[in-house]
Amino acid sequence: xxxxxxxxxxxxxxxxxxxxxxxxxxxxxxxxxxxxxxxxxxxxxxxxxxxxxxxxxxxxxxxxxxxxxxxxxxxxxxxxxxxxxxxxxxxxxxxxxxxxxxxxxxxxxxxxxxxxxxxxxxxxxxxxxxxxxxxxxxxxxxxxxxxxxxxxxxxxxxxxxxxxxxxxxxxxxxxxxxxxxxxxxxxxxxxxxxxxxxxxxxxxxxxxxxxxxxxxxxxxxxxxxxxxxxxxx
Length: 233
What we know:
It is a single chain. Among the domains are: 40-116; 123-157. It has helices spanning 25-39, 45-61, 68-86, 101-111, 120-131, 139-157, 205-218, 223-231, and strands at 13-14, 19-20. Helix 1 packs across helix 2 (45-61), helix 2 (45-61) runs antiparallel to helix 3 and helix 3 runs antiparallel to helix 4 (101-111). By secondary structure, the protein is mainly α. It contains eight helices and two strands, in the order ββαααααααα. The longest helix is centred in the N-terminal third of the chain and has 19 residues, at 68-86. A hairpin with a 4-residue loop joins strand 1 (13-14) and strand 2.
């Protein structure tokens, strides 16, 4: 995922107990849209398909561009999806919140894209304001002073070059000068940087075979050989 799109969800997952905890509201939103098909891919088909359908429903609902035909189709399909979920989960799981998706497609048809109506920007702004409080006796004044200081810093940053940064913090959008490796395959000539501390990890046989297959499938130099094999099969 892009930097800043969601928190580190791996820290919220406990492999030993099989639970996920400590998610923010936006993390739950990202998990519902993106990771449900991956997290529950090992479940039976009659359980997995309704989960994928509800995940795709929210993904289509949160698109930046909405079409009336798609919203009408979503409004017709969501009752069927919820009926499928009622056949999987116990009755105690369902309350008023689980039946709200029935009205979301019609609400989007009336109000437009949800990006202009949801609470994530305001929650983020309130969180930043709360963290900027240094004087608990003067909360409002502390927030105003921090906001003025932050806006002044943003305004002044337009008059400085991009390389004038703090040595302890590096922007993720900076262009890193990486020398191209001649003679290497295309999959090994991608620009990037390391994430976190370096450590040594020995691949298992399964991981090695997965990496081997990934290189063979996604490498442009191997594509002619794959096409040759497919044609002559």
